[in-house]
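Q: My labmate handed me this sequence with no annotations at all. I'd like to see what the chain might look like in three dimensions before we decide whether it's worth expressing. Could you predict it?
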Amino acid sequence: MKRAIEHVAAGRWPAGESSDAVTLDYDARFRRRMVLHCDSGREVLLDLPKAVAMADGDGLRLEDGGWLAVRAKPEPLVEIRAADAHALARLAWHLGNRHLATEIADGMLRIRPDHVIEAMLEGLGARLTRVERAFQPEGGAYGDHAGHHHHDDGDAHGGHTHGGHGGRIHHHHDHHH
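A: Here is what I predict for the chain of 177 residues:
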């Protein structure tokens, strides 16, 4: 099985030279080592030195010098709109306070569906719309991947889940509210 050994950001690799592509959802685009099922049907082993947050248009260099294009797979999302910029900022604060992976777009926010969070947002005056599109949430302030704590294979190493966090895995940390 061929190995993908290097991740290169979009615009920094020869995209015209890719021999294949891999279409991955948000969670699968943050990995260090896993078997990738390419769009052509072949399998490639992702074997990077550390977990990397991949985005649509990025490239993976194969050990033989070839390239694999990364595509973001559309997935169910909720678009969040508010009456004005202040109200939208308030909604963003509530999502951030819950460590929820959130994509910031022009005049709106996007999250994965979560009925508890959606009810909270509607209670705060948000207008919600269900869509299906690629999800590219904001990266964390400390260089992490949008709320993920670095796990090599997506496993929970001592983490715990919070029902109100969409089942996301988090390590314990103190909050001062």
